[in-house]
Design goal:
There is one protein chain. By secondary structure, this protein is of the alpha/beta class. The chain has 21 helices and ten strands. It has helices spanning 2-10, 14-52, 75-79, 81-84, 107-112, 126-134, 156-161, 169-184, 187-192, 226-230, 259-271, 293-302, 316-319, 321-329, 346-352, 386-390, 395-400, 404-421, 436-457, 469-477, 480-485; strands spanning 64-66, 149-151, 197-204, 232-237, 245-247, 276-282, 306-310, 331-336, 356-359, 382-383. The strands form two sheets. It has a five-stranded parallel β-sheet. The chain has a five-stranded parallel β-sheet with strand order 7-6-8-9-10, sandwiched between helices. Helix 1 (2-10) crosses helix 2 (14-52) and helix 11 packs antiparallel against helix 18. The chain is globular, with a radius of gyration of 24 Å. It binds 2-acetamido-2-deoxy-beta-D-glucopyranose (8 copies). Residues 50-51, 54, 60-62 line the site of one 2-acetamido-2-deoxy-beta-D-glucopyranose. One 2-acetamido-2-deoxy-beta-D-glucopyranose is lined by residues 376, 378-379. Belongs to the glycosyltransferase 47 family.
Length: 493
């Protein structure tokens, strides 16, 4: 029945389609009761509206409804920043729509960076950046029944950060409990039980997955709440074991306003003279017995073609954008080991600099940013496993074996990824290029649309296994090798 209705729409026999859907609805109403029928009625009319408008309405099928949340759930957190963030002076980073302070046009900046679009961006601000972009999205609607997806502009990371230390679990959980309470009372929630809702957070998923109510445990427990299980989360690091977590790129320092600024930057990165074969910018993790960082640091120090930016003795060195970018621009490969969690912002800085990233754990990139990068990771990166480093494999030798022609191809692929991984200036959207925001939004709409269709068709995802979600992400991308080979990196939790 549904298939037939769809074909009618395809051939633009809208009246027939409507009648058909109406009869179908009546049948459903009789069979399944009022509740399901309501869900389906909404979705069906959405389908009919969006596809019949398809020809004339370029927004058909991609409308987004943004909740008008009370300001205590978002903007107040920024205004109250001074009081909130005890551990990091993050307040200044929220300026310029989340990009942070503009980098001054000093000589230093001009030689390393380009003259437009550079900011001292703090990587946790992606939720503010996303919020400012979506407010200017060209297909917003105030009619939630038209919307393909519903955005909840709650500042997830800020809510976490303001109570990061020295607060008991009830204080840490209060914000998200209040949010859930607010959401569940909305009619928009009831249509799909929140399954068309999504949130963005500038922090790794682990900050929202506290397992016990012991005050010594980390973070809040939002993601374990029944409401959160129905929503989708776009975070800088997703859990490999969760079906509704999705990773989006960490922001870099570059937020161009035009296509030209991107092309110009790409050209410069192609022409860079790269005097180091490989480099590493980071600090050791002496308290983590599994960390390979000190080995990487040793290898950098002991190689004539390796270069180290040691953040251990003076962390501020590594927070100076021009320092980091200068190093990455003069290196062929950039080492990107696991940090405090799987992922690092540094991987994105390295790609931005045209430096081919070297990963040691598939969870650092390959299983994360599947919406944004190709499934065939050998095209744009090198993988050397943690274990190989522990067995004292020589990085210099491994990387030295890659022939210059391959390196050139890889670098070209890396440089071509740049637009997809940066967040453009929201005040002047790029003309033809899609940036990280565009790609993320499209992907989440695709996901919700499929879910809605599954509900209409009566398909369920009961046979999907949460613990295998990293595999599903790879399969969707055609990365079969990863699915076969990386089990040992993701022990069942
Ligand atoms: C228009 O319709 C086609 C097929 O019916 C669909 O694939 C496409 O996504 C629609 N476009 C929009 C903007 O929804
Ligand atoms: C939604 O409603 C608000 C308040 O009435 C209005 O300012 C805004 O322009 C509307 N947005 C759209 C996309 O219609
Ligand atoms: C679909 O379009 C019709 C006519 O334009 C309108 O009356 C109806 O409310 C729309 N349905 C939804 C769910 O927006
Ligand atoms: C948690 O801390 C708040 C204030 O910091 C206090 O009012 C509250 O009583 C504490 N709750 C528990 C359960 O200790
Ligand atoms: C809470 O955690 C601490 C440290 O991990 C532990 O010593 C303590 O026994 C725990 N308390 C409870 C009630 O489980
Ligand atoms: C989540 O969705 C399921 C249906 O899939 C529903 O039974 C449940 O009540 C929803 N949870 C909340 C908190 O709305
Ligand atoms: C992946 O890319 C490399 C380099 O372009 C190529 O040699 C290889 O055949 C590709 N593998 C797959 C499975 O497509
Ligand atoms: C690792 O290899 C280097 C040279 O290849 C050697 O000097 C060093 O002793 C080795 N270390 C270990 C722990 O085997």
């Amino acid at each position: 029945m549904e298939k037939r209705a769809y074909r009618f729409q395809q051939s633009h026999i809208c009246i027939l389609g409507l009648t058909c859907a109406f009869i179908w609805l009546c049948l459903l109403y009789l069979n399944n009761g009022v509740f399901e029928a309501k869900i389906i009625q909404n979705s069906i009319s959405l389908q009919i509206n969006s596809s019949s408008n398809n020809k004339t309405d370029p927004c058909g099928g991609r409308y987004v409804y943004v909740y008008d949340l009370p300001s205590r759930f978002n903007e107040d957190m920024i205004t109250e920043c001074e009081r909130n963030i005890k551990w990091l002076d993050m307040c200044k980073f929220t300026m310029n729509g989340g990009f942070g302070p503009k980098l001054k046009n000093s000589e230093d900046v001009l030689t390393v960076l380009s003259d437009h679009g550079w900011y001292a961006t703090n990587h946790f601000n992606v939720e503010v950046i996303f919020y400012n972009r979506i407010k200017r999205y060209e297909c917003l609607t105030n009619d939630s029944s038209m919307a393909a997806a519903v955005f909840v502009p709650f500042f997830l990371g800020f809510d976490f950060a303001r109570y990061i230390e020295g607060f008991n679990v009830s204080v840490r959980d209060a914000g998200t409990i209040e949010l859930v309470d607010w959401l569940q009372k909305r009619d928009e929630w009831k249509v799909m039980n929140g399954k068309d809702h999504f949130l963005v957070g500038g922090r790794p998923t682990w900050d929202f997955r506290r397992k016990t109510d012991n005050d010594t445990d980390w973070g809040n427990k939002f993601f374990f709440s029944p409401a959160a299980k129905n929503m989708s989360f776009l975070l800088v690091e997703s859990s490999p074991y969760s079906l509704n977590d999705f990773a989006i790129p960490y922001p870099t320092y570059f937020h161009p306003a035009t296509d030209f600024e991107v092309f110009d930057w790409q050209d410069r990165m192609r022409k860079m003279e790269r005097k180091w074969l490989f480099c590493f910018a980071g600090a050791p993790r002496p308290r983590d017995p599994y960390s390979i960082r000190s080995r990487l640091i040793d290898q950098c120090k002991n190689s004539r073609v390796g270069k180290l930016l040691d953040c251990g003795d003076d962390e501020s060195k590594c927070h100076l954008p021009s320092n980091v970018m200068r190093l990455f621009q003069s290196s062929v490969f950039c080492l990107q080991p696991v940090g405090d969690s799987y992922t690092r912002r540094s991987a994105f800085d390295s790609i931005l600099a045209g430096c081919i990233p070297v990963f040691f754990h598939p969870g650092s990139f390959y299983t994360q940013y599947t919406w944004h990068v190709p499934g065939n990771y050998t095209k744009y990166s090198v993988f050397i496993s943690n274990d190989d480093i522990r067995k004292n494999v020589s990085i210099e030798q491994r990387l030295g074996e890659i022939d210059p022609k391959t390196i050139k191809m890889m670098r070209e692929e890396v440089i071509s990824l740049i637009p997809r991984l940066i967040y453009a200036d929201p005040y002047s959207k790029l003309e033809t290029l899609e940036d990280a925001f565009d790609i993320s939004l499209k992907a989440v709409i695709r996901k919700v649309t499929k879910l809605r269709q599954d509900m209409i068709d009566g398909r369920t995802d009961d046979n999907l296994v949460e613990e295998d979600s990293w595999k599903y992400a790879l399969l969707e991308q055609g990365n079969y090798a990863g699915v076969r080979e990386w089990d040992s990196f993701f022990p069942k939790p």
